[in-house]
From TrEMBL:
Record-linked InterPro entries: Glyco_trans_8, Glycosyltrans_8_dom-fam, Nucleotide-diphossugar_trans
Protein name stated in the entry: Glycosyl transferase family protein
UniProt cross-references to CDD domains, sorted A to Z: GT8_A4GalT_like
Record has Metal-binding as a keyword: yes
Top class in the EC scheme: transferase
Gene it is expressed from: rfaJ
Any one Pfam family match given in the protein's UniProt record, by short name: Glyco_transf_8
């Protein structure tokens, strides 16, 4: 059975998507990959993406999303309409898919992701990591803000394993639209807030240092791990290195700890 991966991008993120995909193919034991990409219109570089995927030996399935679907959802230059697509991905994906792994396109895969993909989600909708698990104050604020005190943690939606069979039964399009309309004034991270607010209590917690290592917090990780999670540890153990936030490693002014690693892998991808 193929491994199903999901992305949601517009024309501005094609190069980054290709780097992420290249890193996955290079470091994952399963090479039978089906790549689904939600997009506002057929990407301008569709033929280039098809050729790239062909060279990688993976299957590419573009899915054009109805432009009016999230017309009333709050957006900014940092949070375009495409970030909402994953909320209703189960309606757009083929019915025969039971599971899919959503990934942001600002991620590097450093090690085999199969331990996450094969995680048992029986009775749950999602699996995700928290980036504020140790910050009780922020966790409390997020729960009060989103009115989901039953949730065990506030999770980052950039790496999201989705139990499509259960989601189709329990996730309501109307509930999502109603939540956006009711809470639009407090949706700081819009799609992520919606997922947490409605379905945080039905999400399995996965370790962030393995499956969603936030590159912004490298010093904090090092301190909290008693200096164990250094660069060598990350390269050996971390599966997904996530470049969250405004600072991105493909920008010339980026000075983060992992900029060289990203640029090296990007160069290998662009050689294709």
């Amino acid at each position: 059975m193929p491994v199903n991966l999901l992305f949601s991008i517009d024309d501005g993120y094609v190069d980054q998507f290709k780097v992420t995909l290249y890193s996955i193919v290079q470091n994952t034991s399963c090479k039978d990959l089906d790549i689904y990409v939600l997009q506002p219109q057929l990407l301008a570089n569709n033929d280039e993406i098809l050729a790239f995927c062909h060279k990688l030996g993976v299957s590419y399935y573009p899915i054009v999303v109805d432009d009016g679907l999230f017309a009333k959802a709050p957006t900014t230059d940092r949070y375009p309409k495409t970030i909402y697509y994953r909320l209703l991905a189960h309606e757009m994906l083929p019915d025969h898919l039971d599971k899919i792994l959503y990934l942001d396109a600002d991620i590097l895969c450093l090690n085999d992701m199969m331990s996450l993909y094969e995680l048992d989600l029986t009775g749950k909708l999602y699996a995700a990591a928290s980036h504020v698990e140790d910050n009780e104050v922020m966790d409390f604020i997020n729960k009060r803000r989103l009115k989901n005190q039953d949730a065990g943690f506030y999770f980052n939606s950039g790496v999201l394993l989705m139990n499509l069979r259960a989601i189709r039964q329990k996730v309501s399009r109307q509930a999502i639209f109603d939540y956006i309309d009711k809470h639009r004034a407090v949706l700081f991270l819009p799609d992520q807030d919606v997922l947490n607010g409605l379905y945080g209590h039905q999400t399995v917690l996965i370790p962030e240092e393995i499956f969603n290592y936030d590159a912004r917090y490298s010093v904090l990780y090092l301190i909290n791990s008693n200096r164990e999670w250094d660069l060598d540890w990350v390269i050996e153990h971390t599966v997904f290195l996530h470049f969250c936030g405004r600072d991105k490693p493909w920008k010339k002014d980026y000075r983060g700890r992992y900029s060289g690693l990203y640029k090296y892998i990007a160069r290998q991808a662009w050689k294709l």
